C-alpha cells in the first residue's frame, strides 16, 4: 500500500528513520514480510573467550574508557590476532585483513610500531582515506556519507575487522552527536554495513567524567553509542594499584555476566628505519574479580575477594544440598557463616544460580 511520505512531520520522520531520509517529495511504499520467510542462523562469534562469545561478527562493537586506559591498545591487540589468524573464534586459523582508521595518532611513529609490538602482519593492515574531487589531499572518511566506499573496501580486500579510532570524530559535523536520533543516522548504516559484510566494526570511544552506575552510559555522546552496538567493552585503571580491567558491559546474543579481564600494557622496543622506538602492547592476564564499575566508583579491592569467597560458599552449599535449597534456608546459613543476603545476590549469576518459585503457593528456591 502506497502512502504519502509527508504524512508525518519532518522531526517525527527523522526520529523514526535511522539513516538519512530519501527525497521526502517521493512517495513511499510499505513492505510486509513474514518472519517465516527468513532463514534462522546462529551468531558467528569473532572472539570466543573461555568458551563464551564476546564479539559477534557482522556487528558494531564499542571499546571505551578514559585517557590512557588501553582502549586503542585493545583495538591493536585485535588487529594482531586477526591478521595472524590467532583470535579464538570463527576466524581462528585463517589470517584476515583489517582496516585501521586513526585520527589521534600518526601511522608511522605510533600506530605502526604498536602494530609491530602486537605481532600484527602489517601487510594485512590497511589505512583507509577518501580522495575527493574538490581536494588535493586525501581526506578522512565521514559517516554516514562514506559508508558505501568503506563497505566496498571491506569487500574488495576481504576485511574482517574495521577499527575506527575515535568513532565520534568520524561522524559528520552536520550531525549533533549529543542527540540520539541524529547520531543513529550515522551508526545505524554502519551497523547494517557490518551485518552485510560479516566484518567486526570496532569503534573506540571515550568516557565522560560523570559518575554512573551503568558503565556503558559513560560513553561520550548520545545514548546511541550505548544502544546501537551489540557489544560494549569498558576499560579502567586503578591509579592506586596500577590494576587494569576490561569489563564487557553489553553482549547482545551472548551472556551478559561474563567475568571481567585483567590486562597490562607491556613496554616494548621496536626497531625502525630511523632507530629504536619505545611503545607498548596489551597483554591479557586472565579473569579479574574487579570490574570497571568497581574501579570508577572507588570500590575496595578487598570486596572482590569477599565476592569470590561468597561465590565459592554458595556453590558448595547448593551442591551439598543436592543442587537446590529454599532461599530462606540459604540466606540463614550464609548469615551464620558471615555472608550477607546482598553478597549472595551479587554473586548468584556468576555461580550460575537461578531463583524460582516452588509452585504457585510455594516459596522461593
Descriptive keywords:
disordered N terminus, alpha/beta, 13 strands, 365 residues, 9-stranded mixed β-sheet, 23% strand, globular
What are the secondary-structure elements, in order, as H or E?
Answer: EHEEEEHEHEHEHEHEEEEHHHH
Q: Based on helices, strands and strand pairing, what is the structural class?
A: alpha/beta
**Strand residue percentage:** 15-25%
Oligomeric state of the chains present here: single chain
In DSSP terms (H or I, runs of 4 or more residues), the helix count works out at 10
The stretches of 5 or more residues where confidence is low (pLDDT under 50) are: 1-22
Distance between the termini: 53 Å
**In percent, how helical is the residue content?**
25-40%
Report the radius of gyration as a whole number of Å.
Answer: 24 Å
**Biggest sheet statistics:** 9 strands, mixed
What integer is the average pLDDT? 88
Secondary structure tally: strands: 13
Biggest sheet, spatial arrangement of strands:
7-6-8-9-5-10-11-12-13
Name the shape in a single word: globular
Could you explain how this protein is built, in words?
- The chain starts with a strand and ends in a 14-residue tail after the last helix.
- It has helices spanning 10-16, 71-84, 107-117, 147-156, 180-197, 224-227, 292-296, 301-320, 327-336, 341-351; strands spanning 2-3, 28-29, 45-49, 52-56, 59-65, 97-102, 125-126, 159-165, 200-206, 231-237, 244-251, 260-272, 275-288.
- It is globular and about 75 Å long.
- The strands form 3 sheets. The protein has a 9-stranded mixed beta sheet, with helices on both faces. Strands 1-2 form a two-stranded antiparallel ribbon.
- Helix 2 (71-84) crosses helix 3 (107-117) and helix 8 crosses helix 10 (341-351).
- Helix 5 (180-197) links the parallel strand 8 (159-165) and strand 9.
- The chain is α/β, with parallel strands linked by helices and 365 residues long.
- The chain has 10 helices and 13 strands.
Amino acid at each position: 500500500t502506497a502512502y504519502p511520505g509527508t504524512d508525518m512531520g519532518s522531526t517525527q520522520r527523522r526520529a523514526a528513520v535511522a539513516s538519512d531520509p530519501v527525497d521526502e517529495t517521493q512517495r513511499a511504499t510499505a513492505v510486509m514480510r513474514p518472519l517465516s520467510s527468513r532463514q534462522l542462523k546462529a551468531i558467528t562469534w569473532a572472539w570466543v573467550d573461555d568458551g563464551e562469545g564476546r564479539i559477534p561478527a557482522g556487528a558494531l562493537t564499542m571499546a571505551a574508557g578514559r585517557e590512557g586506559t588501553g582502549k586503542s591498545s585493545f583495538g591493536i591487540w585485535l588487529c594482531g590476532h586477526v591478521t595472524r589468524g590467532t583470535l579464538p573464534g570463527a576466524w581462528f586459523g585463517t589470517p584476515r585483513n583489517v582496516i585501521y582508521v586513526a585520527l589521534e595518532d600518526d601511522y608511522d611513529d605510533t600506530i605502526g610500531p604498536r602494530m609491530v609490538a602486537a605481532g600484527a602482519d602489517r601487510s594485512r593492515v590497511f589505512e583507509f582515506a577518501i580522495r575527493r574531487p574538490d581536494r588535493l589531499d586525501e581526506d578522512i572518511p565521514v559517516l554516514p556519507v562514506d559508508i558505501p566506499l568503506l563497505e566496498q573496501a571491506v569487500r574488495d580486500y576481504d576485511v574482517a575487522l574495521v577499527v575506527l579510532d575515535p568513532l565520534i570524530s568520524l561522524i559528520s559535523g552536520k550531525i549533533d552527536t549529543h542527540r540520539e536520533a541524529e547520531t543513529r543516522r550515522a551508526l545505524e548504516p554502519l551497523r547494517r554495513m557490518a551485518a552485510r559484510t560479516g566484518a567486526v566494526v570496532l569503534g573506540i570511544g571515550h568516557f565522560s567524567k560523570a559518575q554512573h552506575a551503568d558503565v556503558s552510559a559513560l560513553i561520550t555522546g548520545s545514548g546511541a553509542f550505548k544502544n546501537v552496538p551489540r557489544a560494549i567493552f569498558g576499560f579502567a585503571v586503578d591509579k592506586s594499584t596500577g590494576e587494569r580491567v576490561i569489563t564487557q558491559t553489553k553482549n547482545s546474543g551472548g551472556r551478559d555476566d561474563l567475568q571481567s579481564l585483567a590486562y597490562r600494557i607491556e613496554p616494548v622496543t621496536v626497531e625502525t628505519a630511523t632507530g629504536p622506538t619505545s611503545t607498548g602492547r596489551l597483554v591479557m592476564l586472565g579473569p579479574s574479580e574487579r570490574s570497571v564499575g568497581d574501579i570508577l566508583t572507588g570500590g575496595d579491592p578487598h570486596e572482590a575477594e569477599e565476592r569470590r569467597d561468597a561465590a565459592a560458599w554458595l556453590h558448595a552449599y547448593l551442591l551439598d544440598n543436592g543442587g537446590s535449597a529454599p532461599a530462606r534456608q540459604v540466606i540463614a546459613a550464609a548469615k551464620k557463616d558471615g555472608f550477607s543476603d546482598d553478597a549472595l545476590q551479587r554473586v548468584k549469576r556468576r555461580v550460575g544460580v537461578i531463583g524460582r518459585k516452588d509452585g504457585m503457593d510455594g516459596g522461593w528456591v
